[in-house]
Design brief:
Elements: E1 7-8, H1 59-63, E2 66-72, H2 76-94, E3 101-108, E4 122-124, H3 130-133, H4 139-150, E5 157-161, E6 165-167, E7 180-182, H5 194-197, E8 219-222, H6 223-242, H7 244-250, H8 254-265, E9 270-272, E10 277-278, E11 291-293, E12 298-300, E13 314-316, H9 339-354, H10 358-363
Parallel strand pairs: 1-4, 2-3, 2-5, 3-4, 7-9, 10-11
Antiparallel strand pairs: 5-8, 6-11, 7-8, 12-13
Helix pairs in contact: 2-9, 4-6, 6-8
Length: 364
């Protein structure tokens, strides 16, 4: 499939964010969450950048079709994961039951195109300055704000996904009746951190239970709803990072809490799907899941016993490939290793066997 041309999402965006300084792109941000945010337009202006690769669909399916968007930084670590992810996205979309899977965009927040824009449909967004934020994941909400304003997105729904997601079977549109569909993260605990979260979700907004235990991914949501949420998500993320209590409490999942708060502030509820994805090695079987999320390392001895937290005799950990992609034909796990881990490695191997020029890419 030929990818659509790469575009650029730069330029001044007319966001009316809370108490924002006149020049947002200089990031002199002052934030107050008791004021309202102006939503992004529901009908988007003529795009200066778009790369969607949206296939034609029967009318009934297209009304519920969703566009898959994956944010990425453009480093080697993110890029090889995106190539594997996009391979399995295409396989799932071609399969029976993939009729609601629409277009795909890698939202690249490096500020410049890379060599894979002809392989993966790509929108180039401007990054936040690292020296200002010190937390690269904050680029994600900012990238989504730019993409939603500038890209010509045909579908009415968005699936927010991540590079380290492998789609194991076609995904239907799980959202219903104005509610988004999301995965329940056990480590997102709004009630536990109510005192901190009340700085961003004041009591007049309702019970703390209105904040769902979710992140922004995986989430299937109406495009119009995400257009309203994204600027707030951006604002809350920056404010949490600047707040010592929030930064200490939420750490590497700060931006996930920010999305959950932003969703609640805009009154967008979430249908929680425990089978939306699995996370090996803790989830032992793929079961009915749609996505494998390989955020955790998998460590085993040669008898198939887990050695998590220690260097194992057999390892699959994405962090082993931060500087260069994994080679083709990774060794399969020993007997006794959970089926979820075996499936993960087999799917990585199948993807790299079929992605053009993987060997030369991995050798660089």
């Amino acid at each position: 499939m030929a990818a659509a041309p790469c575009g650029r999402g730069g330029g001044t965006l007319t966001l009316v964010l809370v108490a924002l300084s006149a020049a947002f792109l200089t990031y002199n941000v002052l934030i107050s969450f008791r004021s309202s945010l102006q939503p992004l337009p529901s009908s988007f202006p003529t795009a200066t950048a778009t790369a969607t690769a949206s296939p034609s669909r029967r009318f009934g399916a297209w009304r519920r079709a969703f566009h898959t968007a994956v944010t990425a930084s453009g480093n080697a670590y993110n890029t090889w994961q995106c190539r594997v992810m996009y391979h399995w996205f295409k396989e799932a979309r071609r399969a029976p039951g993939g009729g609601e899977m629409g277009g795909f965009t890698r939202v690249l927040h490096s500020g410049k195109p890379d060599e894979f824009v002809d392989e993966i449909p790509t929108f180039v967004a401007d990054p936040l300055p690292d020296e200002k934020m010190g937390y690269i994941v904050l680029n994600r909400p900012w990238a989504f704000v730019q993409w939603l304003q500038k890209a010509d997105i045909k579908e009415d729904y968005i699936l927010m996904a991540e590079p380290d997601h492998i789609i194991v079977k076609p995904i239907p549109n799980l959202s219903r009746d104005g509610q988004a569909a999301a995965f329940h993260f056990f480590y997102i605990e709004p009630k536990k951190y109510e005192n901190v979260l009340r700085k961003f979700f004041p009591e007049d907004k309702g019970a703390i239970t209105k904040i769902d235990p979710i992140g922004n991914s995986p989430v299937i949501i109406e495009k119009e709803s995400l257009g309203r949420i994204a600027p707030t998500w951006m604002n809350v993320s920056i404010a949490m990072k600047k707040d010592p209590d929030a930064d200490k409490s939420f750490g590497w999942v700060l931006e996930m809490y920010a999305y959950a708060v932003a969703s609640a502030l805009h009154g967008v509820g979430n249908i929680l799907h425990k089978d939306f994805m699995i996370q090996p090695p803790w989830d032992l079987e793929v079961g009915d899941a749609f996505i494998i999320h390989y955020t955790y390392g998998c460590y085993y001895d040669m008898t198939g016993k887990s050695t998590y937290g220690k260097i194992g005799e057999w390892i699959f950990d994405k962090r082993s490939y931060e500087d260069k992609p994994p080679p083709r034909n990774l060794p399969l796990p020993p007997n006794g290793v959970p089926q979820s881990v075996v499936t993960l490695v087999k799917m990585v191997n199948e993807a790299t066997a079929n992605i053009p020029n993987w060997d030369s890419y991995a050798a660089n």
